[in-house]
Amino acid sequence: MASPTPRLVALTPYLLSKVGKTARTLVGDRLAARGLRLWDMAVLAVLADRGPQAQAQRELAEALELHPSDVAKVLDGLARLGHVDRERDPADRRRVLVRISGQGRVLLDELTAETEAVRDHVLAPLDQAERATLHALLLRVHAGTAAEAALEAATGSTPG
């Protein structure tokens, strides 16, 4: 593979894209070896983080910023494998409630360990303090871009 030009490596978005693509590919390959995709892990993570109570399928789609039909497909696969439990809401039979199963929690812990191994591989050139600093900075950037996206959605405008 040809080395990028100095002009490209001077661009932070270029570097973020290249490192992100590498990390995403490595995580994706590990998930694919288990017959899973990144969205499967994302769904399990949201369900685990929201606690033991069942989540409405539509609210899960909103949390993931995915179309409800796409979330339904992911949930179909996870339910078939026993990683999530789905049931009709007794108060509103049109709503589907979802919760992560015990098997799903075990899987999520395994996938988290796999993802942390990828992190360690990708960030091998950095020491622990540098990794912590990078993570803190990325959290700030992520929070800022999320806030900007929310403002754009609320106002219907784009910055510039």
Protein architecture, described:
The chain has 160 residues and is mainly α. 67% of the residues lie in helices and 11% in strands. It has helices at 6-9, 12-32, 38-49, 57-64, 68-80, 102-122, 128-155, and strands at 55-56, 84-89, 92-100. The protein has a three-stranded antiparallel sheet. A hairpin with a 2-residue loop joins strand 2 (84-89) and strand 3. Helix 2 (12-32) crosses helix 6 (102-122) and helix 4 packs across helix 5. The two termini are 36 Å apart. The mean pLDDT is 92.
Write the layout of secondary structure elements.
Elements (H helix, E strand, L loop, with lengths): L5 H4 L2 H21 L5 H12 L5 E2 H8 L3 H13 L3 E6 L2 E9 L1 H21 L5 H28 L5
Summarize it.
With 160 residues, the protein is mostly helical.
Largest pleated sheet: 3 strands, antiparallel
SSE series: HHHEHHEEHH
Derived from helix and strand composition plus strand pairing, the structural class reads mainly alpha
* Fraction of residues in β-strands: 5-15%
Number of strands: 3
Shape: globular
Count of helical stretches: 7
Low-confidence stretches: none
Rg from C-alpha positions? 19 Å
Strand order of the largest sheet: 1-3-2
* Terminal Cα span: 36 Å
Q: What percent of residues adopt helix (DSSP H or I)?
A: 55-70%
Q: Report the mean per-residue pLDDT as an integer.
A: 92
